[in-house]
Each structure stands twice: as C-alpha cells, then as structure tokens.
Recover the amino acids of this structure.
C-alpha cells in the first residue's frame, strides 16, 4: 500500500509511518548535502539563526544537475546519507523531522530519530531523471555560492520514497535482506 | 607519423562526456532487464523496473541518468606512431570543461581535498595514459560517481591467503558497502601488480562490457562464482533485500612480487558509464 503524506511533517504524522512503508510526499522540502550541512552546523554551534525554517522540515540530500531551459530542475536523485551523520542529530534536535537519502545511518542519527521523533526515507539512488519529474518548483534559498550544493526549496508532488528507519528505530536495511533470505530459504 | 590536432581530442572528450552521462550502454541495460525479469522479491523487482524507467527517460530526453555525473575518468590508449599537435592534457580538460557545461552536467570536483572549493567546471579530469602500437588514439570517458567510489577498498594480502583470501576480501567489501553504493552494483576487481597497479586494474575492469567475461577461463570462472556469492548475500537493489545485488564482477589481473597479493575492489553503481571512440 502506498501512503500519501504532506509536508510539513509533524511528529504525529511521523509516528504513524512504519519501516518499509512506500510513501508519496507532496509539499515543501529542502535540499542540503555535505557543504550546506557543514554551514548549518557552524550556525548552530554559534547560536545563530538558520536560513530555513527547521521545525517539522524535511531535508533531501541531493545536489541536482543544472536545469536546461524550460526545466524545473535537472536530474535529482539522493546522495549517500552517512556523510551527513555528523550533522543530522543537531538538526533533528532543533525540529527537523524528515530526511530523504540513501544508505546507512550511524547510531547517533538513529538515537536522535528515536528520541525526538523523526523518520529517514530512502529514495532510489541512480534514478535522478525519474525523480526530477516529481519536482514542480525549485528555488535557491541559501548559499548560492555552493552551486549544486546550495540549499534549494523544492515543491514536490507524489515524490516516491520508502521508510528506511522509522521513529522506533526499525531499519529496512536490516529487516529487508533478512526477510528476503528467510523467505528464499523456505522455498 | 600520423598527426592529430589537440582540438580533435577536445571535441571527442566533450561528446563522450555528454553521451556517457545520458545514455547507458546496452550491456548494462540488457542485464538490468534480465535481472528485473528474474527477480523473485517484489520490492526488488519494483525498484529494478523504476531503474529501467529512469534510464529510458534519460535516453529520450538527453538527461543525465544520475545527478552525480561524476569525476571524468579519461582513459587514452595512444598509438606510438601518433604525434599530437598541441597540449594533450589541456585538450582533455578543455573537453571535460565544455562537455560538463554544454551538457548541463553537475560540476563535482573541488580544487583541493581539504579546502574543498569547487573548480566550477569539473576539471581536472583523472587521466590514464597507455602507449600502444599503431597510429590511432582510443579515448574512453568513464564518469565515476562517488557514492560507489567511497565504498571501494584495497588489501595487501599475503600469498598464503590465496584464492580464498581474495574471495573473502571481495565479499567483505561488498557486504560492508551494503546499500551505500546504489546496488545493483558492478564490481571491478584488480588482482596483482603493486598497491597502485591493483587499484588501476580494478578501475579498468569497470570499462569492460559486463557481458564479456575475462579472457582467461580461470578468471572467468572466478567472476561467475563471485557474482553468485554476492547475489546470495540478499542485499538486493538499494539494500532493501532481494536477489539482484550485483550485475557483474569484472576481474583484471597482472603479475606481482613473490611477497605480495594485492587485491583492489572498485565498486560502481548500476549507472556504470563509459563511452569510447577511436580517432
């Protein structure tokens, strides 16, 4: 079953999501990857305000290709998330509830997900052309000097993701392969 | 002595950068289609079908298949009877510069690994030269994404570790990478040579079409066996479980020292890109 969800992602909405759920996200999300996260962390460490509204926000780890004329955005699939592991817990503590990426997260991120009530979604890596079709608006809202790594505000429609780590810390990267292997052995 | 103008090199590199990033080669497409057909796990099958839809969109609309359009790895086999008019390195980098700006590809190179300022034009390329006989130049552009590059590894095994040690190291590297390099992956392996030669061979192995086994039957069998073992790990497409963890294992090998057994594993994602032209 596919669940339709709208941003902002409140903690109540987050709690209803279970590991392995297929979801279609509609609404505003922000992009940020390595360089932008580093700058956000520096602001947090210096008690300075962030350039985006972090409360109930969803951050998509992506650095899109440049758009051609007439395009909203270029290819825009997820980047590997563990590089944001040093930064995500602080942002979750401040109110971020959703992350979209691909690949494993460390214990500190999973602890923050459980403690504060957040969710880690996976989008399909290497499907940037397909995923770009779900992005209807795109605007740089911070750090334009970073180019593809700038923070973009995106309006997405039915953006397909899967719940990889839910607010209880259940992890699809452990459960999925295990279930497949069990089933495979049984047959 | 045949003369080739540097401008011809630039134009070829430019074209290859764009083509490689927007159009997946047939060997990879055929393999993904076959895997989607044979995949028994529903989630995995669904992901493989979306991967197919993605490269079809990219083909049709000349869009980059993946937003990580990579660092441009440029392999040249230069015939020793060729003379190039102009600076070859500059010509290659100019081709990358033009390809990445004209092709609306992402610029992903920083000028220094520690100060991390983007060069803005995806240069410099990673250039690999080989001198061969003849009067032609074979140029291959292989854009390499770093999600998979970061999951690569090298080991300086002992000769006594033997084939069992080699297999264990390759399987361990793939298992630890798990979902990170965007499975289904292509596994490039370099065995032998020196520390750096093994890594080079692993990268070069990724250039070989995945439907073309190693020419030596022993290594072709090893490729086949490792592919089966990797696909028995259950990682599956995107790491969500399933049969299709790897599309292929490509091994290249080379003589080595009596004291050594270097093994390098260079992982590539399902968007394994390379385009070649002979001038």
């Amino acid at each position: 079953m596919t669940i339709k969800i709208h941003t902002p992602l409140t903690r109540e909405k987050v709690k209803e999501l279970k590991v392995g759920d297929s979801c279609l996200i509609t609404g505003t999300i922000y992009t940020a990857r390595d360089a932008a996260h580093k700058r956000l962390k520096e602001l947090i460490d210096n008690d300075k305000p962030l350039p985006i509204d972090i409360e109930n926000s969803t951050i998509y780890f992506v650095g899109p290709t440049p758009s051609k004329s007439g395009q909203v955005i270029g290819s825009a699939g997820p980047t590997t998330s563990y590089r944001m592991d040093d930064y995500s817990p602080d942002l979750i503590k401040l109110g971020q509830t959703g992350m979209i990426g691909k690949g494993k997260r460390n214990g500190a991120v999973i602890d923050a997900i459980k403690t504060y009530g957040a969710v880690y979604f996976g989008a399909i890596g290497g499907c940037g052309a397909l995923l770009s079709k779900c992005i209807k608006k795109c605007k740089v809202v911070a750090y334009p000097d970073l180019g593809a790594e700038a923070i973009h505000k995106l309006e997405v429609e039915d953006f397909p993701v899967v719940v990889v780590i839910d607010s209880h810390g259940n992890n699809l990267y452990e459960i999925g392969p295990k279930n497949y292997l069990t089933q495979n052995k049984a047959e | 002595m045949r003369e080739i103008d540097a401008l011809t090199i630039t134009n070829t590199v430019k074209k290859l950068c764009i083509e490689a990033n927007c159009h997946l080669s047939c060997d990879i497409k055929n393999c993904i289609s076959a895997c989607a057909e044979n995949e028994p796990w529903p989630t995995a099958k669904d992901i493989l079908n979306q991967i197919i839809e993605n490269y079809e969109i990219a083909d049709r609309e000349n869009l980059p298949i993946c937003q990580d359009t990579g660092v441009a790895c440029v392999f040249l086999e230069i015939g020793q009877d060729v003379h190039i008019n102009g600076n070859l390195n500059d010509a290659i980098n100019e081709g990358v510069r033009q390809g990445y700006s004209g092709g609306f590809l992402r610029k992903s190179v920083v000028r220094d690994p520690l100060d991390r300022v983007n060069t803005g034009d995806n240069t410099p390329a990673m250039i690999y030269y080989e001198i061969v006989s003849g009067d032609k130049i074979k140029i291959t552009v292989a854009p390499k994404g770093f999600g998979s590059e970061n999951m690569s590894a090298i080991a300086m095994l002992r000769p006594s570790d033997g084939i069992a040690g080699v297999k264990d190291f390759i399987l361990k590297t793939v298992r630890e990478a798990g979902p990170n390099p965007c499975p289904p992956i292509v596994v490039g392996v370099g065995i032998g040579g020196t520390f750096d030669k093994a890594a080079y061979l692993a990268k070069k192995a990724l250039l070989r079409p995945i439907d073309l086994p190693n020419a030596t039957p022993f290594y072709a069998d090893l490729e086949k066996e490792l592919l089966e073992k990797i696909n028995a790990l259950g990682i599956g497409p995107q790491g969500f479980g399933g049969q299709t963890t790897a599309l292929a294992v490509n091994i290249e090998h080379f003589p080595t020292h009596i004291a050594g057994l270097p093994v390098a594993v260079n992982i590539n994602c399902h968007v394994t890109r390379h385009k070649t032209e002979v001038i």
About this structure: The beta strands of chain A are 2-6, 22-31, 58-60, 98-101, 119-122, 135-142, 151-165. The mean pLDDT of chain A is 96. The longest strand of chain A covers residues 151-165.
